[in-house]
Amino acid sequence: MKLYNTLTRQKEDFIPLEENKVKMYVCGPTVYDFIHIGNARPYVVFDTIRRYFEYKGYDVNYVQNFTDVDDKIINRANNEGVDAKVIADRYIEEALKDAKALNVKEPTYAPRVTQEIKEIIEMIQTLIEQKNAYEVDGTVFFDTVSFKEYGKLSGKKLDELEIGSRIKLDEAKKNETDFVLWKPKKEGEIAWQSPWGEGRPGWHIECSVMAKKYLGEEIDIHAGGEDLIFPHHENEIAQSECCNHKTFAKYWLHNGFINIENEKMSKSKGNFFTVRDIAKEVPYDVIRFFILCGHYRAPINFSREAMEASKKSLDRVKNCVNNLNHLINNAKVENITEEEKKLNIFKNINNYKNTFEEEMENDFNTSNAITCIFEIVRLINSTVNDNSSKEFLQMLLNEIISLCNVLGILYETEQNNNTINEKEIEELIAKRQEAKKNKDYKLADEIRDSLKLKGIILRDTSAGVVWSIE
Ligand code: AMP
Ligand code: ZN
To answer: 3-state DSSP helix/strand/coil percent for the chain, to nearest 5?
Structure first.
């Protein structure tokens, strides 16, 4: 299995630290509002990567944190006149609802900063003792010059970073690139006791601490959006490697941005759509599918048209599954027949399955893997009919479902998701027959067209109306 490692800037073979195990840490959201579809991207892509490892038999220990103390949370709390905890708890709950609706598996651990303060203080103490950090009036800074490899992830050179910004040098810091590990309490802010006075942790330290506590000093994969490469992940490496004297993460994976009109979607720019709002227009499974239609490192543009196109594509898969279920329920023959055994379909499906795996093992190319699923849908639709045996149909159904499950794209959403089931199709056909009888051809055509939009084709035959999947 090959994956692109941001650290080495190349695709590498995946070799786990421990046989058959994957230790994976994904940076989670800062919880001061509903998550937008950009934030949903790391949720969905790294969940899919986890699912693929599990499909290949790996035991995955998956940790994703919540940043539940931060300036933005505190600002919002002050605006609403409530404690920061009220805001954080509210948006953790909402993020969990969205993640579940997007079929994201629960992490093995989902730690929160405010519950890890003791360990955070301990790591900062170690860094101070080892002269990798220093305190100035209640603020603790990490000394980036003390870590010779600073800049190795982002490819930035320390001198370049410093020279450009020397003029703005913060008086308290020794070097411009030094960053805060602990900051003193300001009036009205949530704070904890520490050896440096009351205060709270800086942002970067939490992930070094949580990764160590829940996964150990060395992990296989560390992931997040590409905006985290610098400074967040660069700083995590500095903290962890100075503290533990071990390579922190073997592979660094970063997803590309979801853009709107070629600009990164972000809360601060105001050009964002929350997952919750998009889900009012299309079902959650379509949002997941939309995200997986692009390669995880490539940028994707969000638009209503793209979302509609994803919906239509996913409906083709769902309709194939619904059709198989319908045929299974009405099959006249139980066991697979000799003719069915002679068909090439299983061999052809197997070829596509192999390609699916090859694509996934080439840095998780979900986009091409989805193309394989469509090829299988096409094969199934053109092979099955009313005379197919139950066993044969069931075998095909299992094939398509198992591949969809690897990507997590076929699941029950709570919404009325507009895909049509066979009962609804039969009802609409009856309504159309009724309309024709009453010479209401306009209504009859409308019904036929609305079914066509969902990929259902009606044929008027001497034996009555027959429907099939487009
Ligand atoms: P934040 O809450 O800003 O810390 O973001 C949570 C996660 O979402 C991080 O992994 C970010 O890199 C990622 N992220 C934020 N905006 C986008 C975007 N527009 N496209 C893709 N990923 C994003
Ligand atoms: Zn992080």
So the answer is: 50, 15, 35
- Pocket (CB within 6 angstroms of ligand 1): 27, 29-30, 38-39, 41-42, 224-225, 227-228, 255, 257-258, 264-266
**Torsion-angle region of residue 58: left (phi > 0), alpha (psi -120 to 50) or beta?**
beta
pLDDT at 55: 97
Best mutation site among 39, 252, 267, 290 for ligand 1 pocket (most ligand atoms within 8 Å of CB): 39
235 exposure class (CB count in 10 Å sphere: 0-12, 13-18, 19+):
buried
Q: Is the pLDDT of residue 414 over 90?
A: no
**Average pLDDT over every residue of 245-267:** 96
The protein residue with its alpha carbon nearest to ligand 1, atom 17, reads: 38
* Alpha-carbon span 50 to 37, nearest angstrom: 20
pLDDT of residue 416: 46
Q: Which ligand is nearest to the CA of 37?
A: 1
Nearest atom of ligand 1 to the alpha carbon of 27: 10
Q: What is the pLDDT of residue 144?
A: 97
Question: Which atom in ligand 1 lies closest to the alpha carbon of residue 224?
Answer: 10
What would the pLDDT profile of 102-141 be if each residue is shown by its tens digit?
A: 999 999 999 999 999 999 999 999 999 999 999 999 999 9
Atom of ligand 1 nearest to the CA of 258: 20
Tokens of 250: 């073997």
Which of 43, 104, 227, 300 has the most ligand 1 atoms within 8 A of CB, as the residue to mutate?
227
The answer on pLDDT for 274 being more than 80 is yes
Q: What is the DSSP string of 51-97?
A: HHHHHTT-EEEEEE-BB--SHHHHHHHHHHTS-HHHHHHHHHHHHHH
Torsion, Cα of 139, 140, 144, 149 (10° steps): -150
Q: In the chain, what are the domains?
A: 2-280 (3.40.50.620), 308-469 (no CATH)
Question: 287 and 41 in contact (C-beta within 8 Å)?
Answer: no
Tell me which amino acid residue 46 is: F
